[in-house]
Amino acid sequence: xxxxxxxxxxxxxxxxxxxxxxPTERIHLDDPGGGVRALVELLAQGAHEEADLPAELxxxxxxxxxxxxxxxxxxxxxxxLLENADADPxxxxxxxxxxxLRFYDLYADLGRSSGDLHHRLAHSTVLVIGAGGLGGGxxxxxxxLGVARVRIVDFxxxxxxxxxxxxxxxxxxxxxxxxAAAAAWARRYAPQTxxxxxxxxxxxxxxxxxxxxxxxxVVLAADQPVGIQLxxxxxxxxxxxxxxxxxxxxxxxxxxxxxxxxxxxRLCLELxxxxxxxxxxxxxxxxxxxxxxxxxxxxxxVAQLLSGLIALEAQRYLARTEEPVAGGTYQTIExxxxxxxxxxxxxxxxDCALCHRSADGGR
Length: 363
Ligand SMILES: [Zn+2]
Fold this sequence. Notes:
The chain is α/β, with parallel strands linked by helices. The protein has 2 domains: 3-91; 123-361, 3-Layer(aba) Sandwich (Rossmann fold), CATH 3.40.50.720. It has helices at residues 35-45, 53-59, 66-78, 91-96, 98-105, 114-122, 133-145, 178-189, 205-211, 228-239, 266-277, 282-287, 300-319, 353-357, and strands spanning 3-5, 10-13, 15-22, 25-31, 82-84, 125-129, 149-154, 194-199, 217-220, 243-249, 252-258, 329-334, 340-345. The strands form 3 sheets. An 8-stranded mixed beta sheet has the order 8-7-6-9-10-11-12-13, sandwiched between helices. It has a 3-stranded antiparallel beta sheet with strand order 2-3-4. The protein has a two-stranded antiparallel ribbon with strand order 1-5. β6, α7 and β7 form a beta-alpha-beta unit. The radius of gyration is 24 Å and the shape is elongated. 40% of the residues are buried. The chain binds zinc ion.
């Protein structure tokens, strides 16, 4: 194995090596004899086998044992400063996905390379329900990330009002089927990703089950028909795949996700809400739904922000860079209140038939 220092800013001064992990987070390594600097410079090249490093350091005037090098490399790896140069992907992938791979650097270590994380995404299939501002934006990010296949479902046609925020469509596509137009855009932008356009109205869980039979993740980017969140929830339990949903209500941007067997689910939330509202008037019950706003106030900037946040959560599920942040948790941004960020989790409900069914695998 050829351990390599990641592309991080490194400063060396007399007696100290400073490595920046974040713009505001530095690691100071004591280096009275200059041996750490010599090791860091060798590791930055990423050209040497670990077994050859003691001899190289000794040749440079820093007598070092194999054990010293092993300990130093383990310590640097614990700080997530190293990656395995032998695990680099092929040259074409390096060219096309350079920034994606550098992003994965943040999560890579000697045991898990950036290439491994990209590989997981590049072999993933995602079902996107809805080809509006949110679905179109998520599609764009998924293509940029290089997923293998996206199935996008909608039954709408492009309307003039969509051009405020649905950037996969152009003025020349008014009246055209959204999914056909989105797939045409995708073929021009990223022909290596297979985009399947399905012109269909999603009206029940069985439809979602059929559409998602071979997928790794579902993105729910539609707010119609009423109840589509619960339908998607049920279908995803049957499929055993996670899903992510989001929207914009009044001035609140929100997104959340469900991983069957691991997080509380959307039905749990519904049951908690029924408990909270028991005894209140029916009109109050029906009026309080955590669905997107029936009046669409989603501007381009809001749609892009929300699409990006959902695509990041998708990346967490697909590549497992880190634990998803919105599992059983409402992530919210109050656009109308100086971008206040909040995260509110919900609990499993004891009467949830779906979570009960998968309780063996749950927590
Ligand atoms: Zn549940």
